[in-house]
Specification:
It is built from 8 helices and 20 strands. The chain has helices spanning about 80-90, 95-115, 140-150, 180, 210-220, 260-265, 300-305, 310-320; strands at about 1-5, 20-25, 30, 35, 40, 50, 55, 60-65, 70-75, 155-160, 160, 165-170, 205-210, 230-235, 245-250, 250-255, 275-280, 285-290, 295-300, 325. The mean pLDDT is about 90.
Length: about 325
């Protein structure tokens, strides 16, 4: 265990004891000792595991004290081993192998795309649904590791550049234009019909919020509203998703982007922007279908294509037309 950017050796051993790390005004406290450093680096020999909050991780781990006196934990590791800990949390390990291989290529491409655009930041991706769900070594399964190994180094490119390979769980019949959600105008990321996720589980969903709760969530998100009295559907795009939502408050009527309302209320509650709105005396009812932002590959659609004997390259060509699959070293 070293101090970041200082090469100060803090601890070494074959079996280091469990330590509690606490941020302090002058640095970090570890194992009862306080060090005047902003971060530590835990370096395993060979492929030894590091346990953090009972989860097992490969690679090097940094623990950094932030300006808000919180701890930022960053796991540094090879992209292929990173994918070992991603795929199990993104698609079931028992799915058809061609669907898992398609997911491996897409997840690798997305990770490398993030590495390019996050070069000035402390980390490339988060471990949750806002990037890709990552569970470390604890989440690895033999079949997903096989899919990663079978597609080792393969990524998607468009016009010689790494594709922003967004993907989602269920599109419910039509994928979304990346331009609407992410402001990216690329031919491979245009919305298109998807007949392959028909019959997928958990396509329909329902959520309910009071007007007061919606107001609080919007204000917390940064959209200022006061005294909401009504909410209704706005414009729909060609995929059937709501581009906008109309909100009436004390200052009049405001129109906000549908995907911003979804993020404000929580993407695990409002699972997509393909929903209807009903205002009742008990609250606002959202009835929707699909799960995720809808851009790029529909994971349940990939499952449906694999069940119909499409291979992973055909799956990727369908959801990301005009792209090429290349090896990382060929760039």
């Amino acid at each position: 265990i070293e101090g970041i950017s200082s090469n100060i050796l803090l601890a070494r051993g074959r079996n280091l004891a469990e330590e509690r790390i606490i941020p302090t005004n002058s640095g970090l406290k570890m194992g009862g000792k306080e060090f005047m450093i902003y971060g530590i680096r835990i370096i395993p020999k060979k492929d030894a595991a590091i346990f953090i909050d009972r989860k097992c991780f490969r690679g090097v781990v940094d623990v950094i004290r932030t300006e808000k006196m919180k701890l930022l934990v960053i796991n540094h590791l090879d992209v292929e081993k990173y994918l070992y800990g991603v795929l199990q949390h993104e698609v079931p390990y028992y799915w058809p192998m061609e669907a898992i291989k398609a997911q491996a290529v897409v997840a690798r491409t997305f990770a490398l795309y993030r590495m390019e655009i996050m070069q000035t930041k402390d980390f490339d991706v988060t471990c949750d649904v806002y990037s890709q769900v990552y569970g470390g070594k604890s989440g690895e399964k033999r079949r997903v590791k096989k899919a990663v190994d079978m597609t080792r180094g393969m990524i998607l490119t468009y016009d010689g550049m790494i594709l922003p390979a967004y993907y989602h769980s269920i599109c419910a019949g039509h994928t979304e234009d990346a331009g609407i959600v992410f402001g990216i105008d690329l031919p491979p990321l245009k919305g298109k019909p998807c007949p392959y996720c028909k019959g997928a589980r958990r396509t329909a969903w329902k959520a309910m919020f009071s007007l007061k709760d919606i107001e609080k969530h919007l204000n917390d998100y940064g959209i200022k509203v006061k005294g909401i009295s009504d909410i209704e559907e706005g414009r729909k795009d060609r995929s059937g998703r709501l581009e906008t939502v109309k909100i009436k408050d004390k200052e009049g009527q405001k129109e906000i982007m549908g995907f911003k309302l979804r993020l404000a209320l929580g993407p695990n509650s409002i699972k997509s922007t393909n929903f209807s709105i009903i205002v009742t005396p008990g609250g606002v009812v959202f009835n929707g279908k699909g799960w995720g932002h809808g851009v790029g590959m529909c994971q349940w659609g990939a499952f449906g294509m694999a069940k119909r004997h499409f291979n992973y390259k055909e799956i990727l060509a369908y959801y990301y037309p005009e792209t090429r699959i290349i090896k990382i070293q060929d760039r």
